Amino acid sequence: MEEQKKTLAKRIIQYFFQGVIVIAPIAVTIYFVFWLFTAVDSILPNIFGSVVPGEEGVHHIPGVGILMMVIIMILIGWASSSFVISHFIDLLGAALEKTPGVKLIYSSVKDFLKAFSGSKKKFDKPVLVNVDSSDVWRMGFITQNDASQFDLVEHVVVYVPFSYAISGMTYFVPKVNIRMVNETISSAEAMKFVISGGVTEMDKAE
Prior knowledge:
Layout: H1 2-41, H2 43-51, H3 64-79, H4 83-97, H5 102-116, E1 126-129, E2 138-144, E3 155-161, E4 168-174, E5 178-180, H6 187-195
Antiparallel strand pairs: 1-2, 1-5, 2-3, 3-4
Protein name: DUF502 domain-containing protein
Keywords: Membrane, Transmembrane, Transmembrane helix
Organism: Arachidicoccus ginsenosidivorans
């Protein structure tokens, strides 16, 4: 009888943790999406309320803020393709890059976003890099194919992200210590593999 109670208790505990494993990722994802949706959706109404005071009677329709934000971003992208607007944006960017304090924030955010999109994507070359010992490898991404500006000939710059974090480490590595990842593995799958601590299954690129 005592043994049956222990077995039942173990099974209940097992079911509890199994339930946590099932529901936690779903709950966190839903919470994050809801938080992001609410935060972005409230940006424009809050701006409108601060610019036009006394408009408490204006009803906020969920989703309209995000729709307006998407439309504004599309219009800005379209306008920035013209010569006059693009020249103005370049002048504004140059001014921000020369402003003490602001320069660090502006250039860091700009380069970070460009690293993930556009023609200057950086995290698109997943590699295995040897920086610890001869038989230990880390997964990273080549961000610069040439490190000669640092007087390191035959070296490349590799960014190695940390698991379950948004930080990482930058290494200057000899090219002989680099192994290209199988081309059937996409950079997105490689990043997901690293961030998850190697527990996720990697799908082959189409």
